[in-house]
Amino acid sequence: MISNPGDEEFRKEIGQWEKPSQAVLPLFHKCMEQKKYISDEDIQRVGRVTGLVPTEDYLAISEVVSIGTFYQHFVFHPTGKHVVRVCMATACLINGSARLLSSIARHLGIGLEETTSDGLFSLHQDQCIGHCADAPCFMINEDTYLSPLSEEIPALLESYATRSACQPLLPIGNPLRNEPVVFAGLASSTTAFMKEYRDRGGYRSLERAIRALTPEGILTEIEKSGLSGRGGGGFPAFKKFASVRLQPPPRYIICNADEGEPGTFKDRVIMERDPHLLIEGMLIAAYAMGAGSGYIYIRSEYPHAYRILDKAISEAMEKGYIGDRVLGTDFSFNLRLYQGAGAYICGEETALIESLEGKRGFPRNKPPHVFEKGLWQCATDVSNVETLANLPVILEKGGNWYGGLGDGRTPGTKLFCLSGNICRPGLFEIPFGKTLRDLIFGLGGGIPGNRRLKAVLPSGHVSQFLLPHQIDISLDYPSFKDAGAMLGSGSMIVLDDSNCMVNLAFWVSAFFHHESCGQCTPCRDGTEDVYEIMVKIVQGEGKKDYLDYLKLLGEYMVEASICGLGVTAPSIPLSSIVHFREEWEEHILGRRCALGVCPMERKMMLGFPPRRSRGFFDDIPGLHPAEP
Questions:
Q1: Cβ–Cβ contacts within 10 Å for residue 79, how many?
Q2: Long-range contacts for 594-599 (Cβ within 8 Å, ≥24 apart)?
Q3: Are residues 15 and 88 in the same domain?
Q4: pTM (predicted TM-score)
Q5: Which of 236, 335, 205, 327 is nearest to 279 (CA)?
Q6: Of the residues 494, 518, 547, which one is the last residue of a structural domain?
Q7: Which range marks the domain in which residue 370 is found?
Q8: 61-77: pLDDT as tens digits
Q9: b/e code 610-621 from CB counts within 10 Å (16+ = b)
Q10: Distance between CA atoms of 280 and 285, rounded to whole angstroms?
Q11: What secondary structure does DSSP assign to 324-342, as a single string?
């Protein structure tokens, strides 16, 4: 093997991880930090020092290249000194992100995926950067800008062009907007680091747990509480923890902080405002299930939260809460941060584990389940940020107290993310059992501009619509399931009557086409075909038969896709066709968009460069334009 003096720096990074292959993503991040892109030499070096590439042969490095190019935030060619990413997810889209993107593009004189001639700026779109209540928003490098005015853009960009080093700006964001029940720390607009957290009783639940309670006693309290997964699955937490405990060691716990579902930002607020609450919850869960190591897998769109968590973990290590013999007991636990790189699919637990092992984020087939064979094929619990952050309060006040909250069908409280066309967007903690009307027209202040409520999009992009006549639905998992919808992560995107539902379906189809990992044919080709049909419809070239094709495609994707992405990708287009069919027929038969949102003419669709592979429905007449 050929060595290189520059390899030593990379080898130091490798030494921080359990296995050399796990360092692939951190090494790529290091390259991006140093020069904003990953060179051919970097690729060879990463392959060499991790052992993935035993030779200098170009074909042998294809595995390293395939890992890096899987993640959209890794760039493999020279790029601008300052990277601008405009969020084009649903909440931002309906609040003007397309106009924002056009304004930035005009000022810079470039299009998407392009770099200015002076090498200062590159322009990209992003799928969601987790500031949905402050939409529209965008990032320059790691600085986040919320609800900017068009006239502010030139001066802002000029400030980056004229200074050599930009200091990170801390996003204000929205802390908790109502009176807290469990999450008292989220009511503050400042971060609670170690001193503030301990002053209000932080880490006392952990101390009691490891000194006065048995793991079985902790699991009993969690069972009494009725706590279920808050990431969208709603599975009982104690069952997950107990299942891992029954497996032989080593055991792992992973916090899923890859909060990529559009409209969802609760986990970001927890990590930015109360990071030690999450860390304490992870320690309690780890002790209960007998896990000796843990990871927080955090998305790269959250650089501010990453820095806060990194500091909080260092503080916890200094105080003896993390490491060997925690607080002088026999319990030892190591905790590490691991940063993703822009892949929505990595919110799926098995794809996350694959990524954490330094691979492409391809979902695994089940069984085996992760509690049997997860990280490194060992017993693993993967839990959401909000789920784990409930544990300190449950141990402090008791499982029966927590179980008494809610409506009986679903115990406890839930953090709801309210965004879209709403007077008072933000994060709200609500006991289960309140109604959607309470959230939108009570806490949320209703629809601005005296417009009419048209629909609500719950759980980001994975659920069907809820309509105005369903506004009194109870905010709990069983009620949403009975209504054919999903409560999921608790995001609620409100849509007024200014929204074209065909246009919304187009952008959602573009999102899934972009985010499909490509592993399984039903999802890979299905999302592409749905997207291309939608392009035709919004450009005024739709045909009535396309509605039947969309239904057929959706049914096949639901039946045959490996993971939830392919299963839920058709939900919004198909739900839109059912509930707003007259809008679709107007677009297809009348060749017009009554709201004036869709272009209804052939043009390059903003934000999504053309991409082709082979689709299921290549034989649809007139679907694909002739090759030049």
A1: 19
A2: 594/500, 595/498, 595/499, 595/500, 595/503, 597/499, 597/500, 597/503, 598/500, 598/502, 598/503, 598/506, 598/538, 598/539, 598/540, 599/538, 599/539, 599/540
A3: no
A4: 0.94
A5: 335
A6: 494
A7: 192-402
A8: 888 999 999 999 999 99
A9: eeeeebbbeebe
A10: 9
A11: SSGGGSS--BEEEEEE--S
